[in-house]
Design a protein that fits this description.
The structure is a homodimer.
Chain A lengths: L10 E18 L13 E3 L9 H19 L9 E6 L5 H7 L6 E4 L5 H14 L5 E8 L1 H8 L15 E2 L2 E8 L19 E9 L14 H19 L9 E4 L3 H14 L8 E3 H5 L2 H4 L5 E2 L1 H18 L4 E5 L1 E3 L3 H5 L6 E3 L1 E8 L1
Parallel strand pairs in A: 1-2, 3-4, 3-5, 6-11, 9-10, 9-12
Antiparallel strand pairs in A: 1-7, 1-8, 5-7, 8-15, 12-15, 13-14
Amino acid sequence: MRKQWTKGASSIKFEEPVYIQSTASIVGKKEGEGPLKDSFDMICEDPMFGVDTWEAAESSMQKEAASMAIGKAGLKPEDIRIIFAGDLLAQTIASSFGTAGLGIPFYGLYGACSTMGESLSLGAMAIAAGYGEHILCATSSHFGSAEKEFRFPLGYGNQRPFSATWTVTGSGACVLGAQPPASDSSDKVLPLRVGNGCAVITGVTTGKIVDYGLKDSLNMGGCMAPAACDTIYQNLKDFCRKPSDYDYIFTGDLGVVGQKILFDLMEEKNIDIQKQHQDCGLLIFDGETQDTHAGGSGCGCSATVLASHILPKVASGEWKRILFVPTGALLSKVSFNEGDSIPGIAHAVVIEHAEA
Amino acid sequence: MRKQWTKGASSIKFEEPVYIQSTASIVGKKEGEGPLKDSFDMICEDPMFGVDTWEAAESSMQKEAASMAIGKAGLKPEDIRIIFAGDLLAQTIASSFGTAGLGIPFYGLYGACSTMGESLSLGAMAIAAGYGEHILCATSSHFGSAEKEFRFPLGYGNQRPFSATWTVTGSGACVLGAQPPASDSSDKVLPLRVGNGCAVITGVTTGKIVDYGLKDSLNMGGCMAPAACDTIYQNLKDFCRKPSDYDYIFTGDLGVVGQKILFDLMEEKNIDIQKQHQDCGLLIFDGETQDTHAGGSGCGCSATVLASHILPKVASGEWKRILFVPTGALLSKVSFNEGDSIPGIAHAVVIEHAEA
């Protein structure tokens, strides 16, 4: 397969669609009390998930989500050719320990909260190229492990500015394949299929790192909005589309602050996405009653909203085509403490309704 | 491209070879005094690379190596369709800040010291599928930033057991493409080509996470050897090869301790790789005179040895086929301090001589 590449383009359009065969979403108690409470596969009341540390809890949750997605597709771990997974923790330990026991060939990713976009992109690219029959894409985040990794000890009880987001405790996983999901379902086998309706990935836009020099780790929406703008703009350009060609454009976790900046930045390019735009961080929590300030965040935010809320509506045909654009803030406590800026990145995945 | 997949296989054989169009290697002073001192593109005497922190130094080095590889291929940053890069630091900040300025679509990876194997694998998969004309694969490590990230403050001057390895200060980068490297070279344009001889990637084997339960972060060779064994064994099985079908099998940074364990584990499978095996960590330093104990380690170890020492010999035809198997120890200081084990992973890349 040898092609001509358009200069300056960052997107790939697949000749044959990549099917999302199944999804799984597991969240914590707080997420299970939010607006999407009836959509998740599992709500775990215990933030420790039955183990001793937050990191191990996140690993357990990610492994469980991966296993559940594999099961819902009617598959076994040995049917999965590659896992693409990552998380927010240093050296992505939630993934290393989360999927280790599954014994599946594994590529570890780091894209901060954009990771579900990265894993779905690479998974779809691999399926479209014929590198595997089934590929698993997964990611996770956990409020306790993320606060410990990036901010203050929980026991310190620090106040949070209104620009801060609340890291979602959750893990989302998808099984991708070249064939439509099976049409038979049972208690345990529950492919992503509504009648003959399916959700397929038809293209991806790879994000660039965009750094406007912001340094406030409690305003990550502001840090990520320029990257979201860059990727959405590039996607529309590469695919010759206008915003209304998408039912919705879902960013990951810009929150109320980042959303406003995104609208402003898009307006500078004479593009209005206000009718189409939704943000997973604004969907998963009720900011009025749940005290989550600017919204939800973390890899698990966009991943669980995609798996529980977005994909079923695409499969049913309620939405014909959406753009999924998780956004990542590329900071570490070391770079933050050394006074560095917080670069952003966003990876876009085009997901469409198809009839099997 | 729709295929049948062999159950239990973890490898991909490319129908058309993927050319390594150029390479670049930059190392620090100590590496520049070792056995490969005449092979590197650049030796930087200043461990700070002219900036203020170790992390920024590593970023500068990685960005310089990436720019150099792009230049040696006769290209500009805008000619590169995707970068696959990663490093050892928390949230892979050396890569986020290292390649940010290049403005190239970017997928961040984490595979510990196996990262060059992961980036070359994904880069080759993307080129072979026609997803880009040129793709850059890069990684880096830095002694100062790695010791700070994983072990003790340098000023503390702790003693190191003989099983410990010495993190290489270095960055390696390769530009991959579907076409042979150009045959004309100049001062700055210096493609990886010897006459008509080139180096091509013909296949990859994706590693699984293997965890034997070892917990000693000062014996990472021991932690990674089981993963190296698993991937090498799988590669030989998937490609129906015996060790002598490779001129050499290069692991990343097992060092003297890990090498011995690898030989023992392979022997249990009735496979003897002692004649073919070399370890990049044992090639880059002279353990007798450089006080590096078990050998070199870090993403930069295998990446710089590949770029400076291995690939030119494959391009010249001195070696016809080699297996490059960087090995990663998946630990963080958090998982280590919580008493977790250190899982290993190894990704294999088959590199062969070809005539353009």
